[in-house]
Write a structure and sequence with these properties.
281 residues, 22% helix, N-terminal domain of MutM-like DNA repair proteins, 20% strand, 4-stranded antiparallel β-sheet, Helicase, Ruva Protein, domain 3, 2 domains, alpha+beta, DNA-(apurinic or apyrimidinic site) lyase, single chain
Amino acid sequence: MPEGDTVWQAARRLHEALAGKALTRSDFRVPKYATVDLTGRGVLNTIPRGKHILTRFEGGLTLHTHLRMEGAWKVYGTGERWRGGPAYQIRAVLGTADRTAVGYRLQVLELLRTTEEERVVGHLGPDLLGPDWDPERALANVLSDPARELGEALLDQRNLAGIGNVYKSELCFLLGVTPWLPAGALPADRARQLPALAKRLLETNRDRPVRQTTGLHRYDLFVYGRAPRPCLRCHTPVRVADQGDGSEERPTYWCPTCQTGPAPAPGTPQRWRDKYPRRTR
């Protein structure tokens, strides 16, 4: 699933392509909005909110989209071939005189009154890349259920908005604890580091085409996607297992030597070949 930095980039591309212009094409390819036509409306702006994207139009309308696991917004110039996937995967097309934004595989697509935006994003915690960022509140949210696994608390967008499986794994590695550690057991000094470290990771990567957390030339990520290759610090094989109740795919990577705390419960699925290959070099 795209995380806060990727969503921030997608929202910026939409804003730069559409904001301040009138739509010359409007096509929603979902049954609920198949007859809706926004042609002629001006686009005011597009903003990210955690993993959600809000595109606002004249007349008090907002398009709310969420990329989930496979979604993407692509922007093309006049006459440029669309390359985001087959046509049947297109869910929305928004065009101006010189740019066309195409939404592929969007799992959430909803038109609502701009005054109702809080209905879809009001539940979110402080946004790591947003103007509402509040590190003290974010940390208090994460620690509010001391028995909850830290990795699960970090993924809960009601606590803080923007972290997904990649940053969960990388952040826990940098804090030196496993994602299965109860949040209340996180040492106080590391708990104090958590908000600033999480924000720094996402801010550093929001302008990068390839996510980088190590600061090393040859390697992009410390643990995510690296099982069973050796840990970059201690050379112990990195491990991977699912975290959570199994209702969602949450591949979680960790180093059993560099990170202290509980390991997954016996019987937890472990995938030694990464199902989602990533550039880890």
